[in-house]
Amino acid sequence: MARHLIKFSLFFCLCIFQNALSAQKPVVYHAPKYEPAWMAPTVHPDRIMINYGADPTTTASVCWRTNEQITEAFAEIAKATPAPKFWRNSQQIKARTEHINGLEVKDAGFAANYHSVTFDGLEPNSLYAYRVGDGEHWSEWIQFRTASTTNDPFSFLYVGDAQNYILELWSRLIRQGFQQAPDARFIIHAGDLVSTAHSEQQWEEWFRAGSFIHSMVPAIPVAGNHEYEPLYEGQDNDQEVLSIQWRPQFALPENGPTNIDELKETTYFTDFQDVRIIALNSNIYHEEQAKWLKTILSNNPNRWTIITFHHPLYSASQGRDNEEWRNLMKPIFDEYGVDLVLQGHDHSYARGRVSPDEYNLTSGVNKRDQTGSVYVVSVSGGKMYKLRENGWENWEADQERAAENTQLVQTITVNKDTIHYRSLTATGDLYDAFDLVKHKNGPNTLVDLQEQAIAARYHHNTISYDDKLPLDIKNDISNKYPDFEINKIDIRENEEGNLFYDIRLQNGELKFRLKVGEQGQVLEEKQQN
């Protein structure tokens, strides 16, 4: 019996040892490959997108894509009813068709027809069903609801940059958001929806990741810096233009600054049930937008004001500071009592409240007084950065909550005098929470509820974002290349399926790229310019 126990113990220990070895073996990530045919338009409607107009109680617009063969298209709309043949009461509207030739455009390489229809004269707080097509090739019937003329409670979603690994990883995040708030009335996208402005593949990923959500839940998108690139290879960055897909695939309110075509459908506002939502373009024409913003805020009958744009006033991540943008916009936000500011760009999470500057001057308190706008920076895609070491200390402001290496979606519910804010991970865990309560007089009250959430997440206590070298190989490289810093590591496979490490080293202007085998042997060394 004892002999059997010894054998069993040895076998058990061996299994544990083997499992430990296998757990230490690096995993090579195999990124998906997308063939050109996968993203090519056809006669069937795809990339169906719904947007609200300036008055979402009575209008909504729909855009979609087909191949060049479809030159005439239509939308049909009817009040949705439980009876399946509600379409007997439908109305058909001819679409506006726009041909987009991106065959020579950098990273685009496509030609397609985009179609759009605006539904006018809708009834408030009503459920409608619509479909789009050419009379023969139709989409499914898709439902949406118009806004109410009363201040009924409602929810919406807010997400930061999708940008990278869009279909691979953003899909799970946006679908989690829809699960958490299936009755969300719209989605705020705070810029960098894609990484490469004109990339047909990335826009295809974005639409497939959101799937039917894009056609049911109206989008309120803002343009990030990655929505701008030169049209053609060899052009300088000062020749950047807005993504050629942006205006054909979104039908956004045209109530922004007048006589500036570049801001059309990137700077705008919409009023939804006692909330004014203002979208700004933080990339261009800052001064012109500031003047327009003052006008829009000075004539604002709504109880709540939410502003969204891409570049944060208070940056979350290392090496970032949008000082000019902050100095221009924050005094305006303070003067007009903006309640909530929703931003992206930094590939991390931060949330805090900063008091108005003029309040500080008159009372002698600092910016931690906590009476001003609530600022949020969030990320929804798979690209992650490191947080600033001292948070917002350089601006004498407090970050109340922060995160690294975590995909997040925000559900925001407006219920008359209270905004309920909840930030959730891609796995549905509550990460941050607060209620913002509005009073007839005086500043809003913020009720911080983050104690209900999971523990703070940072790079050091989560699964490593960056590829790493085994310690023995790292030490060996450091000994062979003293005074060099390891800048980047990628774990790859060669054609035979053998693992190797792609390592970038730097010492001042001197750079090397190494190909190192699994056992630490240097297979290739190249000096880089």
Question: How would you describe the overall organization of this protein?
Answer:
With 529 residues, the protein is an alpha+beta fold. It folds into 2 domains: 147-460, Purple Acid Phosphatase, chain A, domain 2, CATH 3.60.21; 471-528, Nuclear Transport Factor 2, Chain: A. Helix content is 20%, strand content 30%. It contains 10 helices and 28 strands. It has helices spanning 2-24, 36-39, 166-180, 200-210, 213-216, 246-249, 286-298, 323-336, 357-363, 471-480; strands at residues 46-52, 60-66, 74-79, 91-94, 96-101, 111-119, 127-133, 142-145, 154-159, 187-189, 219-221, 228-229, 241-242, 268-272, 275-279, 304-308, 340-343, 349-353, 374-377, 401-403, 408-415, 418-425, 430-437, 445-448, 485-493, 499-507, 510-517, 522-528. The strands form 6 sheets. The protein has a 7-stranded mixed sheet, with helices on one face. The protein is globular and about 75 Å long. The model is unreliable at 14-23 and 358-367 (pLDDT under 50). Pfam families: Metallophos (PF00149), Pur_ac_phosph_N (PF16656). Residues 45-146 form the Purple acid phosphatase N-terminal domain. Residues 1-22 form the signal peptide.
Number of strands: 28
Radius of gyration (CA) equals: 26 Å
Q: What is the mean predicted local confidence, pLDDT?
A: 93
Class of the largest domain, according to the CATH hierarchy?
A: Alpha Beta
